[in-house]
Amino acid sequence: MAVRTGTRSAGAVAQATALGVVIEIPSPLDASLIDWRRRYGGEQAAAVAPHVTLVSGSTTDWDCAAAHVRDVASRTSVFTVCLRGTGTFRPISPVVFLNVTEGAEECGNLHDALVAGPLLHELTHGYHPHLTIAHEVEEAAMDRAQEELRGASMDFVVQKIGLFGMDSTGAWSRREELGLDGPTL
């Protein structure tokens, strides 16, 4: 998983490292979301902490990418996210999620700033901020999640973002927690 840095011999190729930048859901709201993810998405879904993904990709220069994420965080103001009701990407992708109804513009601006420079990558679909509840499970479970959580509602203030990397076992772990230090709105 280590990113090769320094001088390389001719023909050497830098190893790509998976990188993700997310908004982690604060406690105690995360407990309800973990329960919902377990109920509708199974134990595997519950094992991943609830989050709103800002960018997910890979880099061959972790230090440069991390510096870019730190810079973006330092220029971003604290904002509020409201999760309201459910949505789905079906039939394109088997996902049921909670909608980001307030803070979506700020999430989009963060995404755009993050994918500029060293994190530039192609998206197969446009960026749509959301919090996944069920993914790649039976249709009945996704239907239940979409119906039973359609009245779900929670708000929280986003004061920081998490920079995650994937280890050699395929597990994501937070490498840095970055406070949003931009001017107060």
Automatic annotation (TrEMBL):
Keywords linked to the UniProt accession: Ligase
Q: Note the SUPFAM superfamilies from the entry.
A: LigT-like
What Pfam families has UniProt attached to this entry? 2_5_RNA_ligase2
GO molecular function terms here? ligase activity
Question: Is Nucleotide-binding given among the entry's keywords?
Answer: no
User: Superkingdom of this entry's organism?
Assistant: Bacteria
- Which PANTHER family does the UniProt entry name for this protein? PHOSPHOESTERASE SAOUHSC_00951-RELATED, PHOSPHOESTERASE YJCG-RELATED
Recorded protein name is 2'-5' RNA ligase family protein
Task: Tell me the organism's taxonomic lineage.
Answer: Bacteria, Bacillati, Actinomycetota, Actinomycetes, Micrococcales
